[in-house]
Amino acid sequence: MRTSELSCCAPVLANRSSARVVAAAAWYVLASFVLPVPMLTAGDDETRLLDKKLVVVAPAEFHACLADFLAHKAQQLPTELVALEDVLQDRTGVDDPEKLKRFLFQRWRDDRLGYALLVGDVDLMPVRYMVLDRVTPAAFDYAFYPSDLYYADLAKADGSFDDWNASRAGFREQYFGEVRGEKNKDGPINEDQVDYLPDIAVGRWPVSTAEQAAIAARKTIRYEQGLLAGDKPGRNRAALLAVQGWVDSRRLLDGVARELSPRWQITKLYYAEGYAEQTTPPTEAALYDLLNTGVGLVLHTGHGETNRWDHCCTVAGLAKVNNADRLPVLFSVGCSTAHFAPLAPYDAYTDTDGAAHRGTDHGEVFSAPPPPPAAYQRQFNRTGLGEAALRLGDNGAVAYIGCNTGSQPCAQTLLVGFAKALATADKPRLGDAWASAVRYYHAEERLADLRPQASWYPPSIFFQGMKFMVFGDPTLRMPAAD
Ligand SMILES: [Ca+2]
Ligand SMILES: [Ca+2]
Question: Which neighbouring-strand residues pair with 98?
Fold first, then answer.
């Protein structure tokens, strides 16, 4: 964890031409599995055709258990289920992550793709790892981090495909999304010239079995039915957590509370020391009580570890919550709670040649740039609080946003951007709010202007948004204005 080192678009169609109808028709014809969408009438075709589309990419073995979910989503927006196997077979690309990304890019460019739900943990659904020149001598000063932003940032500003690999001399051809400036002070931070700005909203269900996929699907349906029917307890309640021992986030969360009101009713769980107002401290008991009563959104600031929010949430505690009909979206800016895949080359991992490494945390020493991790990690799959919250059963959370490794306090800017989007969108959806948060972060933290300094911090500011995961349906509805 690095916190201890601190004090602590879719393309717009120009007109209502028949070309768009043809494009829409092509969408349905090309689909490998498409649910029938009701025939359009004169009154609703504009709405229907302007809707961005959802593609669900899942291994074929999961398709049967996703049928109810697909039918449910098709009532909201054009929805397509495709087999990962077909995507990988039909596409060119240097590896499976790029094949998947090129598929999404083509759909975004040609067919109004707005959302992608990737169904599969790192053992099944390819993960793109980005690279930081993090100073760790045994690792030859390189570290790899999973980044689903790779699948959301499809295109450069000119609309061309962004392969996240502009710099490819020697070993760098194997290193994607390279961020430099911790070890190397003489070049750009954004070595691979990634565009960074999301073009679509991406979420992942990190599931390894059909049973887990069915759980995530069932929870999403139940959440949305309750929300849209208006009978989901606590649906408009947002809990803001400030936990002692991290940076003092209470004033920032006060601002978030003002943003979210009045659309959201606010419950503050703040530590008391040095705070003028009365608040409830963020204990495990207080949080679980809130989850049992019903809350729609929990925003956590504080230390995190793989399996816990310090002082207020553990996997074991979440497993005892009884909230299946009142599921929340959980969002933590803390470290590592969305850990789901090995962090090469520190953790044990499988490289792109299929060789297993024990990792520098277990004594391995690299004398050259480490071979990158494979897109699939079957021998060394990892887990954490975020995965557990989604897939441990019908209780827990409907979606989880968190960091897959150490985070830094600048992640609070992501949280602010997320809240602003939830507060203002006419028809808020989880993935849109996250994409908006990343764009907000990019502007607010001036990522395009960052340069290496003596401190390690600028590159960490830069890649903060790359290492956060959205475990959930990106089209998940969130409360709108009454
Ligand atoms: Ca590169
Ligand atoms: Ca995992």
Answer: none
SS3 category, 434:
helix
186 three-state secondary structure: coil
Per-residue pLDDT tens for 76-115? 999 999 999 999 998 899 999 999 999 999 999 999 999 9
Q: How far apart (Å, rounded) are the C-alpha atoms in residues 222 and 238?
A: 19
CA of 162 from ligand 1 middle (Å) equals 12
Smallest CA-to-CA distance from 356 within 364, 476, 299, 90 is with: 364
C-alpha 164 – ligand 1 centre gap (Å) = 7
Report DSSP letters for 223-285, one per residue: HHHHHHHT-STTTTEEEEEE-BTB---HHHHHHHHHHHTTTSEEEEEE--TT-SS--B---HH
Map residue 100 onto helix, strand or coil. helix
Tens-place pLDDT, residues 325-362: 999 999 999 999 999 999 999 999 999 999 999 999 99
Q: CB neighbours (10 Å) of residue 185?
A: 13
Does residue 432 register a pLDDT over 70?
yes
- CA–centroid distance, residue 383 to ligand 2 (Å): 4
Ligand nearest the Cα of residue 128 is 1
Q: pLDDT of 214-260, one tens digit each?
A: 999 999 999 999 999 999 999 999 999 999 999 999 999 999 999 99
Number of Cβ atoms within 10 Å of the Cβ of 368: 8
Q: How far is the CA of 305 from the centre of ligand 2 (A)?
A: 15
**Ligand 2 centre distance from Cα of residue 203 (Å):** 14
Largest CA distance in the chain: 67
Q: Which domains does the chain have, with CATH numbers?
A: 9-119 (3.40.50), 209-341+377-471 (3.40.50.1460)
Tell me how far the alpha carbon of residue 181 lies from the centroid of ligand 1, in angstroms.
Answer: 15
